[in-house]
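To the wet lab folks,

You asked to see what we're planning to order before we commit. Fair enough. Below is the target structure as tokens, and below that is the sequence we designed to fit it. If anything looks off to you, flag it before the synthesis order goes out.
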């Protein structure tokens, strides 16, 4: 498996003291941050209680509005920073077709494993949502985005007021991307995204943070802790 993923193999993660490990056990896989303070495991599970709560809590509305979900319209979304796939799942649950593009090989592996597992869920709504998702591994700027309506960018900056579990997950993903010398700069992603043949680009930001790259959005949709800056591209 290590050879397939082009990763270093270590039999026991306790032998390492820095970086982030992809831990593959007999029944599930996860990310483990190794440096001190050593945080708990980070899983991707689209059938988890947390994801089911997201489906029912109603907090999906600002994201859906920013993407352009309205009436019967369900835009095709290219998620350029898939990460743990949570926002992509929300969009798929709203009825959008979503491509999850992720540069980190361990995250790609976990996303695809989680998608395949969720396809076997007893919850029909979860199965319907993940059937609208597909995982793409590599630099988003090298992917073909023709046919998509929206490019979504989440720089994954830590947000004040987040729970310890969410902060742990973000810290682990950020550490993983920090280990990747080819990690994309969000500002570069925005420049690339604005040059693509899509209707709009949506950037997720902490509610009080400045606009990414100081590029003024067409409009913003603001929630309690996050803001979605929307760049509507001129037609023609």
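Sequence we intend to order:
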């Amino acid at each position: 498996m290590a050879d397939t993923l082009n990763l270093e193999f270590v039999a026991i993660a306790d032998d390492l003291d820095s970086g982030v490990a992809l831990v593959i056990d007999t029944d599930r896989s996860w990310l483990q941050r190794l440096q001190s303070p050593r945080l708990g495991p980070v899983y991707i599970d689209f059938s988890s209680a947390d994801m089911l709560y997201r489906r029912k809590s109603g907090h999906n509305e600002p994201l859906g509005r920013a993407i352009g979900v309205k009436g019967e319209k369900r835009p095709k979304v290219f998620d350029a920073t898939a990460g743990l796939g949570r926002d992509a799942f929300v969009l798929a649950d709203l009825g959008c077709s979503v491509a999850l593009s992720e540069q980190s090989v361990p995250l790609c592996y976990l996303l695809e494993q989680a998608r395949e597992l969720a396809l076997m869920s007893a919850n029909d709504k979860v199965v319907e949502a993940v059937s609208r998702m597909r995982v793409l591994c590599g630099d988003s700027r090298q992917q073909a985005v023709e046919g998509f309506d929206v490019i979504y960018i989440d720089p994954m900056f830590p947000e004040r007021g987040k729970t310890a579990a969410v902060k742990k997950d973000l810290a682990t993903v950020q550490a993983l991307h920090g280990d990747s010398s080819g990690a994309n700069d969000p500002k570069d992603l925005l420049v690339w995204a604005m040059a693509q043949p899509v209707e709009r680009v949506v950037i997720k930001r902490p509610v009080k943070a400045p606009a990414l790259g100081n590029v003024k959005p067409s409009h913003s949709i603001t929630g309690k802790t996050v803001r979605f800056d929307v760049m509507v591209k001129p037609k023609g």
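Structural context that might help your review: The beta strands are 20-24, 29-33, 77-79, 98-102, 133-137, 150-153, 200-206, 219-222, 226-232. The chain is about 30% helix and 20% strand.

Thanks,
Computational group
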